[in-house]
Amino acid sequence: MPITEKNILTRLYVVAGFLFLFAMAVLVKLVSIQLVEGDKYRKLAMARTEKMFTIAPKRGNLYSDDGSLLATSVSRYTIRFDAETVSNKDFEENVKALSDSLAKLFGKTTSHYQQLLRKAKVNKNRYALVARNLDYSDYIAVKQFPLFNKGPYKGGLIIEQKIVREHPLGKIAERSVGYERVDENGYYTRVGLEGAFGEYLRGVEGKRLKQKIAKGQWKPIGWDNIVEPKDGYDVVSTIDINIQDIAHHALLRQLEKYNAEHGCVIVMETKTGEVKAISNLGRTTGGKYYERLNYAIGESHEPGSTFKLMSMVVALEDKVIDTSTVVDTEKGTYKVYNRTVRDSKYGGYGKITAAKAFEVSSNTAFAKIINTNYKDKPEKFVNRLMNMGLHRELGLPIKGEGKPVIRYPGDKGWSGVSLAWMSYGYEVSLTPLQTLTFYNAIANDGEMLRPRLIKEVKEWDKTIIKFEKEVINPSICSKETAAKAKQLLKNVVEKKHGTGHRLYSPNFSMAGKTGTTQKNYVSKDPEVMKYISTFAGYFPAENPKYSCIVVIHEPDKSVGYYGADVSGPVFKSVAQKIYASSPKIDEVDVDEVDSKELDEAYQRYYADANKKYKQVPNVEGMSGMDAISILENLGIEVEVKGNGKVRKQSISKGTDLKKVNKIVLELS
Fold it and tell me: According to CATH, where is 3.40.710.10 located in the chain?
């Protein structure tokens, strides 16, 4: 078709129409962006150039009970230089003086800093690093340096502040002090006191506006924060730094001496449940020890012979025995079904009282006592343990408490030998702190307290929250049973046949129980078998002020592994040094009830003892269990009638021992 003027005009009109419609579409879009979607795109642009950052608040201080710092927050500052905001004139006038000041403060050369600053200026670097991790005094000094004293815009000074946590005591109690960390997803990791009481310590975050600059870096805008952070509260713990230091070093020495795998020490105030020291040391591959894990709270294991106290309390409460009940240890072995219980002493102890069985830590005696009296109703034994709370966690604020194991008849793992094995600390599991809580209850005449690690929360000098003692069980047993148990624990240390007698000192009194637990005991290979050595107790014995437990895992068997040898000396060292550093502890108010009568009885006994036991001693007025132990050690067979103190003895004082085979004691 021939091209005509009319065709050309039609095509022009069509093109013009399309251009008009396109222009109208662009105009509509511009109006829409400006008026309808403007806020959205302005925010997007702002987000790409400016962003709100959170500012971590200053975490509250963690104190010991006397106000000494266990953990504190300090500010650390990083100094950067924005070379783009500084005029050439100001830069040239001040660069030499600024470099001199920096060199003098940080110990580098002036030329080093001149080169750094000039390079930043040439490259138009808006975020050049000058110094990092400055303390507050250095930060204040840098702010006054030439050029930097002109501020962030004219002087190019960029200041970044961060809060770091420091422990003035260093590695001592590091695991117990702990930490609180949060990851990029907001998940917290909480350890020790820092983690347990983070809600008080952490404070409230602030807000700071920053501007995006080259290379994806963010520069603070202005001097001030949008929202100021609020500092956390201070927390006063129950830890006594003197006792903590004593416990730490006593444990460390013993771990090194026995080349042990790990261990822990806990010291608790008897009447309040306040934990005064808690030390946890584990060994590195290089043989060094450090606060590796919180074994005291988190590690549940078979307690071994320290559990005999629990078994004794159950038997005394149920009145299936008394301390004077005679048990035949059957030459050191006792067979239950296809399993044999053995005493550590070859040949056993013969016929002994329940009291002496506890003092010498006879496995066969305890297996026999518990198995014989509870085999028809094993739930009665377990129910008593559970009534004393041994199957429950302590409910501590610190995360990671190990779970106790007290099996019930019918549970998985229960068998015909379970009663016998439980009686002396196998087939059960407790953490060191759970064991100590029970011992502390006995020292406290039956009142069981929840261990406490915090005294109060403070803001400056104002108390926000005060924590008092918490009673878990006002009476785990009768006062009569508690009194008998306390005497037994005292005898373990004081009596010559007691497993803890090597720890005895005439200068101060202690009471406690040794424990030596076999690990991997299912193996018959002596090289595989390892041990846990424990000593748990309290001091002074007469009026307990502190309870303490020492647990050491896998000591070198060639050096020693018994609880009295490995853990006992740590207990004694802690007790001795606390005595020496705490004069008030000697001001013991000994119970006056019957004390005069008992003292006179024991004076008569010791007078007889000086005669080297050629004659029958006078045991009248003594407790039955002590009288029986004395007479049995002289080779005399003892028959007992009644309970309590010795009212009458059938063989009079002074009778030649060679003529005596048996004596009858009447107890009141």
Answer: 294-538
Contacts of 14 by beta carbon, 8 Å cutoff, 6+ apart: none
* Structure-token pair, residue 63: 């104190």
Torsion angle of alpha carbons 43, 49, 52, 55, nearest 10°?
180
**Cis amide bond preceding 540, omega within 30:** yes
Maximum CA extent, the chain: 156
Q: Tell me the per-residue pLDDT of 200-229, one tens digit each, with 9 for 90 and over.
A: 888 887 887 777 776 566 777 765 667 777
| 606-667 CATH choice from 3.40.109.10, 3.30.10.20, 3.90.660.10, 3.30.1330.10 | 3.30.10.20
**What distance in Å separates the CA atoms of residue 220 and residue 77, rounded to the nearest whole number?**
13
3-state secondary structure of 484: helix
CATH class of 77-165: alpha beta
301-328 core/surface letters (b: 16 or more CB in 10 A; e: else): bbbbbbbbbbbbbbbbbeebbbbbbbbe
Go through the chain and tell me how many residues it has: 668
Cα(356)–Cα(624) distance, rounded to whole angstroms? Answer: 11
For 325, the 3-state DSSP assignment is coil
Do residues 373 and 321 make contact, with C-beta atoms less than 8 angstroms apart? Answer: yes
The DSSP output letter for 228 is -
pTM over 0.85: no
The per-residue pLDDT for range 341-388, each reduced to its tens digit, is: 999 888 889 999 999 999 999 999 999 999 999 999 999 999 999 999
